[in-house]
Amino acid sequence: MEHVLPERQLKELQKAILDFMHTQGYAESLEVFARESGNDGFVADSKDRHHNLLAKKWTSVIRLQKKIMELETKLSKLQDDVRTGAVATRRGKPAEWLPRPPAQQTLAQHRAPITSVRFHPQYMVLATASEDMTVKIWDSESGDFERTLKGHTKTVQDMAFDAKGSVLVTCSADLTLRVWDVSDEYKCVRTLHGHDHCVSAVCFIGADKIASASRDKTVKIWELATGYCVKTLSGHSDWVRGLGVSTDSRMLCTASNDQSVRLWDLASGECKGDLRGHDNVVEVAKFAPVASHAFLRRLAGLPPVAVAKQNGSDGTSPDEPATSQFIISGSRDKTLRLWD
User: Cα 88 to the chain's mean position, in Å?
Assistant: First the structure.
């Protein structure tokens, strides 16, 4: 009979079943199943990640089934509202749309301050980085702790999943970046060396490149497949604190202790803009999502793109697509600045 599960997942399931049989005292069944599944010599261990895994997953399935039923009920109600024309505006006050206390989960495992938090782009997985030199992986639905990633020898400053969630990259004050294979039990498959000081931020550029910012005043571009540094961006006069990549992966913005935000062309490596206005260290800079551009133009008092093109005020002809992108920066001067 052909297995529905891949071989690795099948082994994981078998070990979880064996652990369950052990905790329930099914000694004879455990012995038979271990022999027939090719897991002779299986020894249950309360510290093993398979311990109670079956029960946890079963609980998650029940919870998800309940959630699905609730969502199906809401969907049915919304469909009825659409058919009857009852849907006009979002119900409730804007404050009711936002998360509010109390917290649904409190996750406690780290032994030092937490420096970064990232959600997996596809699964209910949460990664947290800390000054305790580790990254911890959690089930974001249940709040259950799953594993610890060790390897860095100083504070883990930042991390990023790729778009598919198959790779996690971390950066540290130990001057390195580490690449972890999510599909292979978060095995560290590569360590990137090249920075001369603390590596403070990291992000993906498309699917095959990584950008890292450092206290050595540079930004480095790395090839994911080989681990080689293919480009170094120099221009800041102080610690580069943060970075962000545009949606089309053509531009990079960086934030620095030199109180500036810089805009870089990733193809040429040239600095295309030096944005100044903050009065203190700029901690973070990010590109705004394309979907937010219309709202940000309104916030900034700019005309809609169609009007701007018609008037020729955006520097493009009416037939050209809008190329302007917004950047948001945050500084120790207690302000956020929106750049067009």
Answer: 34
- Counting Cβ atoms within 10 Å, is residue 57 exposed (0-12), middle (13-18) or buried (19+)? middle
Residues with Cβ within 8 Å of residue 186, at least 6 apart in sequence: 137, 147, 149, 168, 180
Residues above pLDDT 70, as percent of the chain? 89
Cα separation, 253 vs 113, whole angstroms: 27
Give the pLDDT score at 150: 97
Q: In what order do the strands lie in the sheet containing 327-331?
A: 282-287, 327-331, 336-339
pLDDT score, position 322? 45
* CA dihedral of 284, 230, 173, 338, whole degrees rounded to 10: 0
Read off the tokens for 49: 């990640």
- In the block, tokens 């505006």 appear at 89
Answer yes or no: are the C-beta atoms of 177 and 191 closer than 8 Å: yes
Q: Which of 33-42, 81-90, 187-196 has the highest mean predicted lDDT (pLDDT)?
A: 187-196
Judging by DSSP bridges, how do beta strands 240-245 and 229-234 pair with one another?
A: unpaired
Give pLDDT tens digits for 268-326. Answer: 999 999 999 999 999 999 999 888 888 888 888 888 876 444 444 444 444 434 445 79
End-to-end CA distance of the chain: 60
- Tens of pLDDT, residues 11-45: 888 888 998 888 888 888 888 998 888 888 888 88
pLDDT of residue 313: 46
Q: Report whether 89 contacts 57 (CB < 8 A).
A: no
225 by DSSP, 3-state: which?
coil
Per the CB < 8 A criterion, the answer to whether 138 and 107 are in contact is: yes
Copy the structure tokens of residue 129.
């980085």
Name the amino acid, one letter, at 248: D
Choose among 311, 312, 307, 259: nearest CA to 285: 259
Please answer whether residues 181 and 148 qualify as being in contact, where contact means their C-beta atoms are separated by less than 8 angstroms.
no
**Cis upstream peptide for 304 (omega within 30°):** no
| Residue 33 CB contacts under 8 Å (≥ 6 apart), including other chains | 14, 17, 18, 21, 39
Q: Which residues pair with 116 in a beta bridge?
A: 129
